[in-house]
């Protein structure tokens, strides 16, 4: 059980760090979209953010598998399970919008700003609901 607790702590720390890094990069992209949404800067943002999104997903899967080992059969029964469901839905939306950002080749800054804003609001809703449900 000691190894499971250690894995939980390490993966949770890495999950939170990668989430915060992606949230910060997206916030910066929303605020300074005129400079970030240009060719070279956008490519750098996409490379860096894809690492954070992938790392968030992998650590989230690890955390969910560790959580389910302790008997989380029905996620709708308790507040922690409900917050996990909200986070899964939010991550799915963010992943979908991020994929759209990657394949969008129009180069129009206002469309990028709207997509970045959707990702930012999704993260805010997920973490506000997690805070509300688990406290």
TrEMBL record:
The keyword Transmembrane helix applies. It comes from the Bacteria. The chain crosses the membrane at residues 12-33, 45-68, 80-103, 115-133. Keywords: Membrane, Transmembrane, Transmembrane helix. This is Uncharacterized protein. It comes from Persephonella marina (strain DSM 14350 / EX-H1).
